[in-house]
Amino acid sequence: MAICTASSRLARWDVYLETHMRLDTRVESIKEWRNAQLSADQVLEITGFKVNPKGRPRPSRIERLRALVEKSPKLEETLRDMEYVLPHPDHPATRLNKLLITEEYPLIAWYWELVLNFLHIATQTLHSGLDQDERARVVTEFRKGPRGGDLNHLSVCILMYTRGGLTGGAVGALSSAEVEGDKALHAKRRQQPVQPVTISAPKMSLQPCCVKGFEWDGTPEGKAIPFPTFSNQAYVTGSNSDAAVMLITDVFGWDFINNRLLADHFAREANVTVYMPDFLSKDILKMDFPDWAKNGLDIQAFISKHSRDIREPEIFACARKLRSEYKKLGASGYCYGGWAVCRLGAKGNDLVDCISMGHPSMLVEADLDGVAVPIQILAPEIDPAYTDELKEHTWKTLQKNGVVFGYEHFPGVEHSCFTRGDPGKAGELEAMVRGKSAAVGWFRQWLHPA
């Protein structure tokens, strides 16, 4: 059994995985593994945590995983997507952190990120699965909060495993036949040639913060018209015949009142015509859906239906249409729209003159690598979607590539504050106003040359 660990969250606290790993620590069978009663401390001893020495570059998650694999040449399983979101009755947003890769049964450990400056995971003896009562007790321990900021309190707890891979299969205890047959399976597989290990990039996904927010008061000033390229519609506001902005919305879509009110502000204050197309084919979320997990929203199914590969051609076609009609065109994207505006502003596309994005989601490093037009980034301090690693990559990459950029940091506020912030919540009204004004200034600067 080989044990690997990866977490972009850990990188926030300058913690990185030690590349030392005992070569393929093995347990010959699930039964033997159970009898071994591996403790959390033993698991950490195998993987190893260290505080990042001051001044030493912090490796990316994929680099850390590659280093682990290089130190464990017998590892036969393909490392699975480390960002897969799995359901849990009390923590629907719990994400995969520690993956114990066996030769047949992947075992999944979970973590909870606390709002404090370190990670605490309750120390537990590893089990192949916990029943509902045991799981509830573990959740209670997590909710008690951290015992201290020392990294010695980092440990792991197995709550369940999923047979047949991480994306599906039965969950529960192994049958006696499976347990007894496991040793023979190990012996057979060890005689097979070692297969090369591949490592996939993090899976693009929405975070729970992407589907939360506050609905604003107001009356939109624009109108809905059939969009000239497709059979769907667009909200259009403003009357400038020379300069336009295409606003790509979050998952609440083109008819969400907050998005329309924001478009109106852009049109009036930046003196542009704003087009906000329906890129979700009317498959939008509602603000009266306060708890998407408990109400049965399948966020992965939603993202699959509106994946980047599916929506990007449509977004590009709309931009080309507007590009042919206006002398200057900008693009604005919030949350789901963040990745899209980066793609519009990529080198060689010649689709927009500038872009602005706020709390982007589904963004990958390659999107930032390709940007070639002036870009504005509106970044809340607390954002599980636009991580500290992505922020750091943003600064380094845009400077290295010589791209003009403006970076606005918003301390103390969370993802969604610019489009779904609560005016009654401390700091959020200020962030909304400042974020709107920053975007207006950006578009006035680049779409209205002196």
Automatic annotation (TrEMBL):
Residue span(s) of domain Dienelactone hydrolase: 234-445
GO MF entry, a single one: hydrolase activity
Pfam families reported for this sequence: DLH
Record field: transmembrane: none
InterPro entries noted in UniProt: AB_hydrolase_fold, Dienelactn_hydro, P-loop_NTPase
Protein name, as recorded: Dienelactone hydrolase domain-containing protein
Species in which this protein is naturally found: Friedmanniomyces simplex
